[in-house]
Model the fold of this input.
Amino acid sequence: MAIPSTIPILGLPWDDVLFVILAGTMLLAGLLVVTMRDIIRCGLAMMVCFGALAGIYVMAGAPLVAGAQVLVYIGAISVLVLFAIMLTQTKVGPTRLVFQTQAVPAAIAAVILVVVLVLTIGATQWGGTGERGETITADLARVLFADWVLPFEIVGVLLLAAVIGGVFLAKRDRPASTDDVE
Amino acid sequence: MSNLWYIAGFLFAGVSFVFLTIGAAWLISHRNPGDVHKGLPYESGIDTYGDTHGRFGLSFYIYALLFVAFDIEVVFIFLWAIVFRDLLISGFISMLIFVGILLLGLAYAWRKGVLEWR
Amino acid sequence: MTAVARSWGRLTLAGKILFTVIPILLLLTAGLVLVVVLFGKPIVDFLAANIWLVRFIVAASAVLLMSVPTAFLIIYMEMKVIALMNLRIGPDRVGPFGSLLSVVHGLKVLMKEDFSPTGSDRLVFTLAPVVVYMSAVMSLLVLPFAPGLFGADINIGLLYLFAVGGLTVVGLLMAGWSSFNKYSLLGGLRSAAQVVSYEIPLTLSVVGLLILTGTMSLNQISLNQAGWFTNWYVFQQPLGALIFFIAATAEGNRTPFDLTEADSEIVAGFATEYSGMRFGFFFFAEYVNVFIVSGLFVALFLGGWNAPIAWPEAWAIHLTFDPGSTGMGLLFALLLVPPILILALAAPFYVGRSSLPWWQALIIGFVLFNVLAIVVVGGWAFISLDWVAGLLWFLGKTYLFVFTFVWMRGTLPRVRIDQLMGFAWKWLLPASLLNLFVTALAVIVINPR
Done:
């Protein structure tokens, strides 16, 4: 008398329940990000969105990407975004929608994105994606460090550029600094 | 895949446990309306003064920025570490270059004095 | 009695109803359990066919039920140990040696007014402790307590642990921002900057260990350290272990790095405006995190659940006695042995000291019997069940480290914030990278398979 291996009436695997929950959370959180008026809450909703995306990565068989997603996007980049919001925001919050000033360009961009996505989805052959595979982390690492060493080093250069740019901008904001200024 | 069910279940369990406990506390605790001073932000006894969400130093932001760069590095290093025994010398050199590049950024930040707290 | 009456009077109507309903609910639950026991064949069959469901429910409830008493135990330990270090007595009123004081603290926090300051963002204000406690509970999922005794064995376990542990920063920032208080905001930002800075040395310090083990699963790392205590990674990675310990202290916001709660500077940091159960969860999460950090250190560097001595297989005692084979005799033994042993243990006291009333002798006999039974059953379980032995070793080592954290709190002064941040970036980060490359070089040269 075990629980049936698929959902009784629909005949879908149980993992689809998880997918629906995760995708629903993601969509809802994404909608909240663009519609809420309090920008801090927008940032927090964005984190929820990232977390649900990490879950979907696990479902797609890429647990390492999911771990990196949580570690980097929620733990680091969202925290950076929160810092930036708190740094620039002095009053309690705007009374209008945050992105209202750019509503028209944003709408155009959204429509273009939808068209591109629909075209891409329609043109893709979905034949071989039926079964869910699991990427073995060690295999991924072997491939990365054997065949893709150069892109890996270029990532290092990119990160270096980000650090130097950030430090440079941050120091420029401080003319009263006693350090040597270039 | 069953691990994802575990993670989701633990997330649900943890969140609902905290919410239920806070809800129970909300139900059983007493309420005291108090006067207008009760809800004011605590500032060591005097009434609050000035803008509460005031500006603060930029140092916090720079630390977060450095953290982002090194956090991405950490993911790569973890990947590298678990297969290091298959790579040996080539892996050692590629990681040395990668970390060296990032350390340039740290050295720049150090030189510019942003690592000094002020 | 007056205290109870006063507490009762202060409860809201809902609270009074809840307190009356809870005993009724308990009675109903007992009845339900009885029904299940009597007519539970289909239910038991269902659970037996879906043993994974049972495992999940047991794991989740064990972690949740364990987390709060763990926090209580560590809070009591901290109060008592620091008091003894300061030549004070410490808690001594509630329970034996004051050991129930932290439980009373927990109840007090539960009964406090549910309050949020004006101007605060109530939703975020409530969600902040939820996020912090959730990250603690989710960290406990991968901690290996004993052979086979863990929530889930995730193959990227260590990365998962650091990722989930990093969520604490978000909770602290939420608390700091939503409180609408300058001290809270400063404290939240400060603790976020601190946690973020020390996360890099913390994660890099274990890379040397990952090179040696070649896996990120905590369970597998514990298994790799079986045998004599010289197999523990602390002897191959002393620098890594030291950096991990320092960075973990800072991650958990413990003295000497508890700048977030530097009460002489920013009152109580991010928790300034918090009270009641919301504060309680910050408080619990801090101590659960102490336990997690200690447990993680033990699992990574101190051999996890492994005993320091590898018992030769010849010494292992295998009890061949099967209790089920005795049939009805077992029932009689279970019924008769406790009263007989209690009487036997009480007799010497009653006979030897004539001033002792009979009921006191009986109580002494009962206590002695329980001690004896726990020793016998525990010893039997320790010898013949490896998960009991593993759990005891794991908890013993972990609480040794919890004690070290408490000891440090009783001994060391707090560092200054500029020293704190400089130390992470200028000393710990280069040191952990050095440890990484030295380990890698050693592996290249020696290549121990």
In short: Residues 2-28 of chain B form the longest helix (27 residues). The mean pLDDT of chain B is 80. The CA atoms of residues 41 and 53 of chain B lie 11 Å apart.
